[in-house]
Amino acid sequence: MEQACTESAKAIKPIDRKSVHQICSGQVVLSLATAVKELLENSIDAGATSIDIKLKEYGAELIEVSDNGCGVEEHNFEGLTLKHHTSKLQDFSDLVHVETFGFRGEALSSLCALSDLSIFTCHKSAKVGTRLVFDQNGKIIQKSLLPRQQGTTVCIQQLFYTLPVRHKEFQRNTKKEFAKMVQVLQAYCIISTGVRINCTNQVGQGKRTPIVCSSGTLSSMKENIGAVFGQKQLQNLIPFEQLPPSESVCEEYGLTNADILAGFYTITGYISQCDHGVGRSSTDRQFYYINQRPCDPAKVIKIVNEVYHSFNRHQYPFVVLNICVNSECVDINVTPDKRQILLQEEKLLLAILKTSLTAMFSSSVNKFNVNQQLMDVTGNVRRSSEEVDCPKADQTNLSERGTLAISKLREAFSISHRPMGSPANTKTEKMQTQSPSTAQRKLSAFFNKSPKVQTSISRNVLDVSDAKEPQETQQSLSEVTQKERDCESVKGTISTSDGELGFSTSDLSVCTNSDSFACSPETIVKTEVEYPTSCDRHVEDEIASKQPDNDGADDIPALNCKRLKMEIPVNNTEPDLVDAPVNIMKKTVPLNFSMCRLSKQMEKLKRQKQQKEESEMFRRFRAKISPGENQTAEAELRKEISKEMFSRMDIIGQFNLGFIITKLDSDLFIVDQHATDEKYNFEMLQQSTVLQGQRLIMPQKLHLTAVNEIILMDNIEIFKKNGFDFIFDEDAPIMERVKLVSLPTSKNWTFGQQDIEELIFMLSDSPGVMCRPSRVRQMFASRACRKSVMIGTALNTHEMKKLVTHMGEIEQPWNCPHGRPTMRHLASLDMIDF
């Protein structure tokens, strides 16, 4: 305690400048991608039209960025690599209007602290170039004159060697970091029009391999996309069409008319079509810009992918979107790498994106082009382009065929959706009178309980208090099946003091409230339902089964007749009678209360609660068997159960022919026999199956980017285990060096380039690790399901023990390939009072 007080009493002192420099530098340059991005931005800010990036050993040994920009003047040599020295800003207010990529003056200074940095530059006003070597503090330690053309070359060697932990991590994941760097580089290649960017990599003493190459003569974003990803990628892109936000979307985001500012945002770019097979299996080709600055707007990315998934749920789009907004409405100084940007009126931007993307995809999602005549729902005949110039005779025949098809379509539609009031199914007949109570009881029993006939009286039909002339209307019942249409017919009439009003029983309801509509107290509703002789027995049986028990004596004679006659009195009940007060007899009961007894009871409850909490402290498993707690349950099982424990579990028995009850010490577990066997079979198939390849007649070009080609070449054995085989041509240009010669096939499962790209994406994150494309996993999951023990299969003790033991032999025994839990904690015997 005394030592802690002494430590806290130490004086607060500033950190020395060298330590501050190293601490802050490690937060500015985080990865290979950050280092290359900073150097590339400096070259673009210098007005370069040609930038060459040369890497050795994927950037682990050397990073060299050369440009033909304006160069550095001699009087700026000293401040070139000092902390927070920049020519972009004079004061903080300039930050609002900054249009260059870099402005903080941290990149070169941080790179000096993390590597060996040298700069070779020649300003347009200088006669000869100068080579500068800097120490870790950004001070010039060597200066020499050398001939050079106008421009600057920055050379970085041994990146992160001053931070041992980060340097070791960087060397271990060099290829993974290299792939991320290339993706960042592609973003600048797309948006930087009129700038040629070329990147190469050299491994060992081999020749330089081109990675990314764009042409400086191109002046549009679309042409840059074609240069970086190939012309094939352009075939599936559609330009972004900006629309104002719709009312429904505005309501979703809480926007009012005052919040919708016209011209606040201007969005341009391209996105993949929503057709299945056009998108990608990952998000590796999504590029977002704000005022032509590459960034990662999380909410924008989320809404774009959500809208796309609503039309194509299995793939991701290729996206290039540039969002232009007034610089005063953007905060780009959020993070050191300037990838996170804050926007004013962000909800308006999201509403515009959602409305525009939904409209773009909706306009093309239902299109299907075929070379034959098509009919729309209005009956208009559409003809293909081949039929536009056909002879008149052919056009006449076409018109007749179209008219015939329309008539048949309408006939079929009228049969399945016959409108109410069809004269074919109803008649108007006068009805006989029964007692009001009997008729009302029969009507309620028949029409409310029979599934074949539903009746209601519309409010307009019964408004007969001012009726002067009889009115008739005929309606039919909507038949459910063709059999019922052949044997059912309903007739209905309403008899009033002034005349008769025909209606169908499908529009029948009882008027009991004078506020609903005006009807006299004497109004009587009479309905007569007649059944054809061919189905009398069927209807009688149906009605008999629907009659209540207490009405059976009254209804039996009616069932022997061919007609069911009903009469309903419609009474105009006064509101005062309905809302009359009810007298309730109240009884007073004395309640014995004791404060002493209450306090004792409260103390007892507190002791019980405390004992329960103390006992639960020793529980290892707290998650319930509930779908909402699956993740918590799996975390508990991973924490408390190791693989060797499965072999020590005792088999209690089988429950419901689908679950195995096991015991480990004092804990009981329930195991899904099908799910656990399915997961074991699935992992065995994953490990042991080598898919056989089907040789192609001709090699197929894959049009992979340079970095994807490198990933494929480095993991060729994994591709072979998945049934893919390739040939390589080192002398071919980029995106044509790899050709597919063999595809995996397995029964009715076929695979293609989409699976190759997905596999490449997975290997870019985990190089050298055996993995399978998602469709291969689906195939294995389907086969594992069919060969596993099914629910309903009786198992003996030996078979149950075998299934439980297998759970200790697989990597992830907690759920099956389809996501169903394999095992849950059932109960702890220590917590049960016997």
UniProtKB/TrEMBL annotation:
**What GO terms are given for molecular function?**
ATP binding; ATP hydrolysis activity; ATP-dependent DNA damage sensor activity; endonuclease activity; mismatched DNA binding
Instruction: Extract the InterPro entries matched here.
Output: DNA_mismatch_repair_CS, DNA_mismatch_S5_2-like, HATPase_C_sf, MutL/Mlh/PMS, MutL/Mlh/Pms-like, MutL_C, MutL_C_dimsub, MutL_C_regsub
- Chain intervals with Polar residues compositional bias: 423-439
Q: Which GO terms describe its biological process?
A: mismatch repair; somatic hypermutation of immunoglobulin genes
Q: Which residues are in the MutL C-terminal dimerisation domain?
A: 651-795
Q: What is the lineage of its organism?
A: Eukaryota, Metazoa, Chordata, Craniata, Vertebrata
Q: Where is this region: Disordered?
A: 415-439, 463-494
Q: Which UniProt keywords apply?
A: ATP-binding, DNA damage, Endonuclease, Hydrolase, Nuclease, Nucleotide-binding, Nucleus
Q: What positions does the domain DNA mismatch repair protein S5 occupy?
A: 225-362
One GO cellular component term of this record is: MutLalpha complex
Q: What is this protein called?
A: Mismatch repair endonuclease PMS2
Location relative to the cell: Nucleus
Spans through the membrane: none
Q: Please report which protein family the annotation says this sequence is part of.
A: Belongs to the DNA mismatch repair MutL/HexB family.
Reaction equations catalysed:
ATP + H2O = ADP + phosphate + H(+)
Species this protein is from: Eleutherodactylus coqui (Puerto Rican coqui)
PROSITE patterns for this protein? DNA_MISMATCH_REPAIR_1
